[in-house]
Design brief:
The chain is 32% helix and 16% strand. It has 247 residues and is α/β, with parallel strands linked by helices. Strands 1, 2, 3, 4, 5, 6, 7 and 8 form an eight-stranded mixed β-sheet that branches. β6, α5 and β7 form a beta-alpha-beta unit. α5 packs across α6. The protein is globular. The two termini are 20 Å apart. The model has no long low-confidence stretch (mean pLDDT 95).
């Protein structure tokens, strides 16, 4: 399985990452990627960017080092209604919106599974959200069956996050594996992303690819196997029902 896009990466603007946009784009080009999502953290992240950053992000070239740049955000889910820590007027202008839970960013840690699940499903239904970031995070446990079913119903994409198997979110692997199996069974599209916080990790999704393959997820249900598929999905904001059928 070869990926043409990495849709979840962070630059120095996130406050705890280490590379510039140009360095990330150069690394993407070296990895043979066609698309790169610059998705720095939403404004509630400690040490992260101000909303002005995202307004200026839109002024960057659409292509750097021969790689098309998708200007986005990894926003924080902040309440049970699926609201995010970003102004709607900015979300509406970005190419790519990921949404997920992070400690200390507005959503309470230690909430019951039912509360976390309701909030994540509401975020799936949020019209500005394209991808749910690291839904297997054990710090914010959810009912994965219900989350996968909601993603299928709403035509949204769930992420299998490579960084969750390496440096972040210990204990994610069993939940990510379950999500992958359910996604394969229900015909839900997934994105396999690096969650790179430096240029040295861009495009490195080996663990996520392995989980997807083991679960039986076919290439045509991996969003970022095809750059064209990514762009088509982002332009529509939702997967057509016919794409989600298992042949």
């Amino acid at each position: 399985m070869e990926l043409q896009a990495d849709l979840h990466t962070h630059t120095i603007a996130s406050g705890h990452a280490f590379s510039t946009v140009k360095e990330m784009a150069s690394a993407a080009a070296a990895a043979g990627l066609q698309l790169l999502g610059i998705t720095d953290h939403g404004v509630n992240m400690p040490g992260g960017p101000h909303e002005y950053y995202f307004s200026q992000l839109l002024t960057l070239p659409d292509e750097i080092e021969g790689v098309r740049i998708l200007k986005g955000v990894e926003a924080n889910i902040i309440d049970s209604n699926g609201n995010l820590d970003m102004p709607v007027e900015i979300l509406s202008r970005l190419d790519l919106v990921l949404a997920g839970f992070h400690a200390g960013c507005g959503f309470p840690s230690g909430a019951p599974v039912e509360v976390n699940t309701a909030a994540m499903i509401a975020a799936i239904k949020n019209p500005f959200v394209h991808i749910i970031a690291h839904p297997g995070n054990p710090e914010f446990p959810v009912d994965i069956d219900r989350v996968v079913a909601a993603a299928r119903e709403e035509g949204k994409v769930l992420e299998i996050n490579n960084n969750s198997f390496k440096h972040s979110r210990p204990g994610s692997a069993p939940r990510c594996q379950l999500l992958a199996r359910l996604a394969a069974r229900q015909g839900v599209m997934v994105a396999l992303n690096s969650d790179a916080h430096s240029c040295y990790s861009v495009g490195q999704c080996e663990e996520s690819i392995g989980v997807a393959k083991s679960a039986g997820i076919r290439d045509d249900f991996v969003l970022n196997v095809s750059a064209g598929r990514v762009l088509e999905y982002l332009s529509a904001g939702k997967l057509p029902q016919m794409v989600r059928k298992i042949s």
